[in-house]
Structures are given as structure tokens and as C-alpha cells.
Fold each of these.
Amino acid sequence: MNKEQARIAIIGAGWVGIGCARMLLEAGYKIDVFESNPDVGGVWHPQNHYSGLEIHSYAKNVEFFDFPLPGHVNKADRITAQQVFTYLCDYCKFHNLYNFITFNTQAERIDYNTNTNEYEVFFKKYTHVIYTHGFSSRSLPEVEGIKKFFGKAIHSFFANQALIQSLVEENKKVIIVGGSKTATDLILQFQKRGYQVPWLYRKNYWFINRDIMYKALEATSQNKKLRMFFTKLIYKISDKCGALHPEAAFYYMRALKLIHTFGKKHGDFKRFHNGALDGNQIKLLSHYNSKNHIPGQIQSFTENGVVLDNGTKLEADYVIFCTGSGPCSSLIDININGKKFAIEKVKSVYRSRVIPQLPGIIFTSFSPFATGVVNGLCYGNWIIKYIESAFGLEHLENESTIYDKPFFQRHLLFDSSDYIIRIGMQMLAPFFSSGELLGDEFEKWHIQNTFSTNAAKPLTFNKPEAKAKV
Ligand SMILES: Cc1cc2nc3c(=O)[nH]c(=O)nc-3n(C[C@H](O)[C@H](O)[C@H](O)COP(=O)(O)OP(=O)(O)OC[C@H]3O[C@@H](n4cnc5c(N)ncnc54)[C@H](O)[C@@H]3O)c2cc1C
């Protein structure tokens, strides 16, 4: 299909939606963007800022290559969610992206008509829909008795600065649930205010130790060869070895002190989701953890609190669930020729992005090409090649991966029953075997994107070769 024929709806204006919009407009495509929030930003929009949310990696991870971060920002530092949000808004102004976005508009449904090959969103017909719903939905686990609880059970995205301050001032009984990055951020917020709250989780997570990484990068900054040796070593251990032998990669990273945890050291390599903490945070959390950690998980709510799986009862006014925000919980309804399509049963997916029977819908939230804002730009580049290729059902089916469990029921990437790096690399593998990405070039690009302090340019993709099924 050529760009004159294509009409594209983008659902979501987080950094993936923005990146896709930017690349498609530059390539001359017609687009409309629909966003349910009153502004761009997704996770980084103020409505989704829990208190203390910052980017975990370098600030340059949120820098677009064609729009520098403000001069006062140290690109090797973390920046706050508010700074990320402001920067994303400025980027959209700079590229006139606002002209293409309709805000306060929640897309409820996509209707696919197989006769016309069109997808209807908000009464308009499109040849393609890019669905970038991301990670900003708020999903609470279903726990028995939650309705009879007199207090409040909330998702971490509601735990903003004002709420945390009022909980502390009013001396409320709060429980933080979960052990991953969000929980650590919120614990640090309470700790900063000298307020102790029980920290409930089953098993502590492992985090990248930013200080060790920075020190090594600083120490090698004057010596290009040494720096390249160091960055390649980290890449080979964490990504390459992690993809094949996750347990070994985990033990190497642990032995080199690249990863750390705030609680009892354990060997469960699946409790590593690529989150990052600095040395001081790890120290504070370890101290806090030794005093306030409660092992277990909530089995049920009572009127005044919770009962854990080991029978322990805890009183609470507020329970804050830092239990993630996977994309599976907010899937949109899809109809084919007026009949509801059972997306929750789909097992065969092309490139973790397209359901063969719905070739015009591209899902971006299940498998990133990269971390940071460059992910959206990479997506834009790949989608252009995908649209040009106009593959039919047979090719998409032949090239699909068949999953043992339905693809859209489990959030593959942040599922603690598997290893995030292994899954991430597995999802990239078809791009190498089809020739869309070249292994060596990707490796160079990935190292640059991860370790350099300059913003990376987006990946470019080759047209995939159509292959016969073997
Ligand atoms: C707490 C947290 C911290 C994170 N920290 C980092 C980090 O430090 N570095 C990093 O690289 N990644 C981080 N991530 C991952 C992060 O989510 C992504 O990198 C990035 O924000 C994803 O962008 P996105 O555009 O795909 O999704 P989102 O940012 O979630 O944006 C999706 C947008 O789609 C909109 N939307 C959804 N459904 C509809 C609908 N039906 N109709 C209209 N609009 C809709 C939403 O309102 C939202 O604005 C973090 C994630 C979370 C949750």
C-alpha cells in the first residue's frame, strides 16, 4: 500500500504514539491521534505521576535526537516525571503534533470490515490503527472482600505528592504492596517524610546498581577503547548471555555487583525487571526494609484492613497497590464484521505486534524495540515498512509465533514467572531472521542507545523477505 492510500489512526499519545506520529507525518502519511487524557505523555502525564516518579536511566533516554533536552539538564542524571512531561509537550509543539491529536477521547472499540478492509474508530474509517495503550492503565488485583473495606485500596498512579503528604499529616495507617520499582519509589517518599509504613511483598526484586554503572562509564570516558570493551562486556553478559542462559547472566551480574537488592539476597533471577536504583537508595531501602518488611501477600480484605496468606492481620486506612500496569488489562474491544473478536484467545501473533486476521491493527505495548523515547520513533520506522509490505493473511500466519498460552492474557514482559531479557530478545529474534534488522548493526545501535550520553537515532528496518513456510 502506498502512503496516498493509507489513513492511519493512532490510539494513545504517550511517547510511543508521539514517536509514531512524528515518523509517519515526516514520511507523508495522513494520521489522526486519539488520546483519553487531556494532554500527551501517557505514563509521564501528571495524572499518572505517583509521588517520586523519575526516569530510572539517564535523562538522555528521553531525549529525541532532533530536539535537545533543555541546556540545564545533565544528560547522565535522572529527571522527574514532570520534567519528562514538559519536554514531551515541548517536542509536540516543536513538530506541530498537537494539530493531529484529539484529547479527552477514549477509543472504546475498533470495527473491522473485511469487505472494505477498513477499520472504524470514532465513526471514521482507517486502513490502519496503531494501538499504543502502553502502561498507564490502573489495574488493581481482584482480592476477596475488597468492597467491604472501609478504607481505600488504590493503584500507585493515584499516590501523588498531595495524597502522600496528607496521609502522613493525618497519621493514616498505610500498607505498600509490591517489591518492584514503583514500590521502592513510594517507600522512599514515605521514608523522606520520616513516616514508617509496612512494606508487604513476597520476594525482593533485584535492581541495576546505577552507581557502579556510572563509575565504570566515568572511569572509561577518556579511553574510547576501554569504554567500548566495558560496554560490550555488559551487553554480552546481560543481553546475549541473558537470552540463552538467564541464570548464568544473573549470577555474573550479581558477582560484578551490577545488580543489587534491598532485602535478603536470593537466586531467583526472574525477580529482575531492569529497574535501577542508586547506591544511596539501596542503602536507605535496605535499612527501611529491615524494619518494615512484612512477607506475604493479601488474601482478603476485612472492614479495617487485610488478612495475609499466612493468617497475619494488618490494620489499614489505605492500601497502595504497586502491582504494575500491564497492557493486557486495558485491551480495547475489536469487532470483525459486527461480531466481537475474542482477542483474549489469540495464540498466534506476528512479530508480537499484529494478529494475522487483523492485519491493519498494530499493537505496540507488548514488545519494545528499545527503552526510552527512541522506541516510538523505531516503531514509526517499522510501521512504515510494514504498511508498504501489505502482507496478506497467509504470510502473516506463516511468520507468526505460536504461544502456548494466549498472547494477550499474560503480560509476557513483566511476568515474574519468566526472565525479562530472555523474553525481550526472543521477541526481537524474528527481525533478525527475516533480515529486517541486521545483528551487528543492531548490537552497535543498542550499545550506543544504552551507554552513550547522546540521544540515539531511531533504528532503520529493511523490508522483510517473504519466506515460504518450512
Ligand atoms: C511507573 C513506570 C515507570 C517507568 N519508567 C520507565 C523508565 O524509566 N524508562 C523507560 O524506558 N520506560 C519506563 N517505563 C515503561 C514506560 O511505560 C514506557 O517506556 C513508556 O512510557 C511507554 O509509552 P507508551 O506510549 O507505550 O505508553 P503510555 O505512556 O502508557 O501511553 C499510552 C497512552 O495511551 C492512552 N490510551 C490508552 N488507551 C486509550 C484509548 N482506548 N483511547 C485513547 N487513549 C488511550 C493513554 O491515556 C496514554 O496516554 C515505566 C513504566 C511505568 C508504568
Amino acid sequence: MTCKTLLTRMSRYIDGDLEEELCVQLKKHLRGCDRCKIVFDTTRRTIGFYRAGKPYEIPRGVHARLQRALRRQWKSSSQKKSSRA
Ligand SMILES: [Zn+2]
């Protein structure tokens, strides 16, 4: 699984809506990729915050906005010199 694939599957994984096989691949990728792990932790916290703080479900579109924001963040951090190629 590539970093890009992980980002597109992440919210479904957090929702528990991802195929078993992809879950395994995603977890495997997270173990070996610090950058994705940080993004994943941030996303999980953000979604957890929404769930804990609001009595209603995450509005449609939040996932998409979040992913776009994270992708930008990932892109800018990947432009810096990283220890991981
Ligand atoms: Zn990655």
C-alpha cells in the first residue's frame, strides 16, 4: 500500500468500514511509515473529537475536507528532507 492509498482509505478504516485485507495492509504500512502514522493519529483524534463533542454524526464532507487538508500537510512535509525515502 502506498502513502496515497492509505490517505484515501484512512477514514473508512477509522469508521470500521474497510475490507479486512485492506485493514491489514493499512496497519502494516502504518508500522513502517512515521509520516502516515502521524497523519493517522491526527485524523483519529479529530474524528474522535467530533464524535465526543457533538451529539450528531460527522457532517457529510468533513472527511473529504479533512483528507484534502491532510494531503496538503503530507505534501508539504514530504518536500522537506526526510529520513525515509
Ligand atoms: Zn506512508
Amino acid sequence: MRKIAFGYSTRCNVKCEHCVAAAADSKTQKMEIEQAKESIRELAAAKVGGISFTAGEPLIYRDDICILLHLCRELGVYSRLVSNSFWASTSEKANSCVLQLKNAGLSQLRLSYSRWHQKNIARQNVVNAAKSCIKHGVSYFISFVTDFTKDDDEYEEYLRKHKLLFFPEPVIFSGRAGAFTRLPIHTDYQANCCPMNPYLSPNFDLYACCDAGSHFSRTNFFYLGNLKEKGAEELFRTSETNILYTLIRNSGISTIASYAGFRARDIVTYRKCELCEKMFNSPQMLETLQDAAAAGLQTWHR
Ligand code: SF4
Ligand code: SF4
């Protein structure tokens, strides 16, 4: 199924130190509501079956977002919304917002949580938001962003104590987190296949990757084009037929890095997006890999 991360606005009401959605100097951008509706209709016509309203903080524009959620429901598109729970300071406020989202047709709420988010938003808000979802039968989960250090233990314990549904997610060293110190990772040698959800920015630029990939400024490797100029069908087809993207999805970042000459013991020291950045944000290496994609790289599998 085609899916997309929909950036209605890059504006947020807080400024987390680890935010991948923004560089330190970035200016905020926002779509016009009528253009957003038109884009959603076009995406649905191009068989996009899932839209995730994502960072900045979508619920700053709660009424606009509810209009867009209604439209998704009308068009039969699964809708997810990613929020920092700023609106859930009390159970009453949480209930009111969750009910409004439910009535607008929201399919799932994803609540962001981390030791960086929670410097700005009380963690009780996340509990209030999650409990409102449970109470009103709205699907939810908590996205627990972590750098896997002991500093995060108490944050994880807190979620367990409240018996909430959560999934750990590695911090991505891009955007503001690009300045963070990298800590050694301890993991197995793994394929690092990446599903690559496309990201639509507020100025309708479409990227093949919704995370660090929109910051690959030296090569713009994941940039697909502008939705207003090329149309959703053409841009999705570009994303789905690009050989390197297909290899990222199916063979994985580690296999491509191994082919490109990275040592196995070096590969296990990088997180997925960092390794991706090393290869695809380097003009020379990208050129080599593009040549290889048409030849040996595709046969580099077990
Ligand atoms: S991580 Fe989320 S809540 Fe924090 S600044 Fe970025 S968009 Fe806002
Ligand atoms: S591994 Fe590459 S394609 Fe996947 S999310 Fe990270 S930057 Fe994007």
C-alpha cells in the first residue's frame, strides 16, 4: 500500500533538542488548507491508502487537521496523527481532543515521548492522552525515542508502570540531533532494510524518505519532485522504480555498504540512517553506486 508522511506545517509549539524535523535555523512553513485538501484528493486518486500527519505539531492547527481527517475518512484513506500531547494537560482536555479527533475520523494516534520531549511537555500529558484513547476506543501507541542509554531507563519504566503500549525508536542523528555526540552501538550485523515512507513537505516537495533523507543536502538523493508540478502518480512511480531505493527497501543498507567497501566491523558501528547518509549524501559514492545499481549491485545477494 502506498503511504505518506504529510507535513501540513513545520511549526511546533516546543523545540526539542533532538528534533529531526528541523535544523537549528529552519523557518516554519505551512500549507493552505484548500491546497492540502486538493493534495489529499490527488494522493487518494494515486492509490495512497495511508496518510500520517506528522511534524511539526499538527494539533496546533486542530480544526484544520480535523477537516483533513474528515476528508481522509470520506476517501477511504487510513489516517494517523503524530503528536507531542501538549493538549492533554488534564483528563478532561485529553478527552475533549481525542473525541474531536475520533469524530473527525482519525484511525490512529501516535504519541511522541522521550527524555527530550518531556523537558517541554509533562509526561503526565502522554498518560492522559493514551488513557483517553483507551477510554474512547481510539487506536494509539507511544513512540519512545531513545538513544539506548541508562538516562532513558526511568522514562521506559514510567511507561511500563502505567501499562501503556509503546515501541522504542532510535533517535535519528539528523536535524537538531545532528549535533549530538554519537554513542557506540551494540547490535548484531543486520540487513537494515528500510521501508522508506515518502514525506510531503508544506511546500509540496516530495521526498522518498520521511526521516533523515530530506536533509541529504549535498546530493538531494531522496528528492522526487514537486507534487504541484509532476503529480502524485508520477512521483510515486519514480520512487517505486528507482533501483537504489528498491535495494534500500529489499536488500538493506548494510548490504549496499558492504558492496561499497565498508568493513563489516565498521558497518555495525553505524545506525541505519547514518550509514545511509555516508553513502547517499556523498556525490562521489552516489555516482559509484548509481553505476553499480545498473550492474553488479543487484546480484549482490545470498
Ligand atoms: S520532536 Fe516533535 S515535539 Fe519536538 S520539536 Fe520536533 S516536532 Fe516538535
Ligand atoms: S535509512 Fe535512509 S532511507 Fe531509511 S529512514 Fe534512514 S535516511 Fe531514510
